Amino acid sequence: MIGLLKEELRLFFTALQFFTRVPVPMWVGWSPDQLNRSARHFPTVGWLAGGVSAGVLLAAMQVWPAAVAVLLAMAAGVMLTGAFHEDGFADSCDGFGGGYTPERVMAIMKDSRVGSYATVGVVLMLALKFQLLLALVPQGAVVLLGVIIASHTLSRWAALCVMATLPYVRDDDSSKSKPIAQGIARGPMLAATLVAAAPVWWVGGQLWWAPPAVLATAWLAGRFFKRRIGGYVGDALGATQQLAEVVVLLVAVAEVRGPSWI
């Protein structure tokens, strides 16, 4: 039992060092197989990322206006992950926006330069997150904490759904995501689903529609990737995560506001 727990802890730390800038113990090590098996812990990393962002937001609100606190929370999340997912979203905007063939799309994604599609896409995405988080501030600490954590766990689960249903299509060895391209088995996927959905039970009614909305987002994203490039690449997973994170926030704000007829 102790050996099993240590191995799960090793896999969690493996996922943590891949998706964040948090230092991990030296004994964790690294190997492609180890990274592939750590996929089940992607939503668990979301608990940490969401918890840090929410904690910064709640702490900052004790000193500064809500808008400043939201910006500080967003900055903390970006610093924690090194803008890992945002970079994938930006590359996807450039690739799918400027490429017309699968080869050209993936070549643009690999280019380190930032184009107009990426710039506009990231600005709009961050602005949308800012406005949605600001709209949730009046709901109180418990709801805010739960929604932010859920947006991080469910969005990473969405990326897993894409991994589980599509083939990996980049064949060069330089890709950082190639070691996790083998997908995920049913058992680990079920465990990841439970971890990802846990914040929904915590928040309750304001998030009941979030899991099906995120699943629909992952399905639509997967269909788009399949049609355009025949499967997924690492940048596409980052784009899926960012889109799903926004979807969770949209659902939460929609539940708070309710229907409005003019």
Automatic annotation (TrEMBL):
It catalyses: alpha-ribazole 5'-phosphate + adenosylcob(III)inamide-GDP = adenosylcob(III)alamin 5'-phosphate + GMP + H(+); alpha-ribazole + adenosylcob(III)inamide-GDP = adenosylcob(III)alamin + GMP + H(+). The keyword Transmembrane helix applies. Pathway: Cofactor biosynthesis; adenosylcobalamin biosynthesis; adenosylcobalamin from cob(II)yrinate a,c-diamide: step 7/7. It is found in: Cell membrane. It comes from the Bacteria. The keyword Transmembrane helix applies. Its cofactor is Mg(2+). GO terms for molecular function: adenosylcobinamide-GDP ribazoletransferase activity. Keywords: Cell membrane, Cobalamin biosynthesis, Magnesium, Membrane, Transferase, Transmembrane, Transmembrane helix. Its EC number is 2.7.8.26. It is a multi-pass membrane protein. InterPro entries: CobS. Pfam families: CobS. The chain crosses the membrane at residues 12-30, 42-60, 66-84, 114-137, 143-168, 208-225. NCBIfam families: PRK00235.1-3. Belongs to the CobS family. Joins adenosylcobinamide-GDP and alpha-ribazole to generate adenosylcobalamin (Ado-cobalamin). Also synthesizes adenosylcobalamin 5'-phosphate from adenosylcobinamide-GDP and alpha-ribazole 5'-phosphate. This is Adenosylcobinamide-GDP ribazoletransferase. It comes from Ideonella margarita.
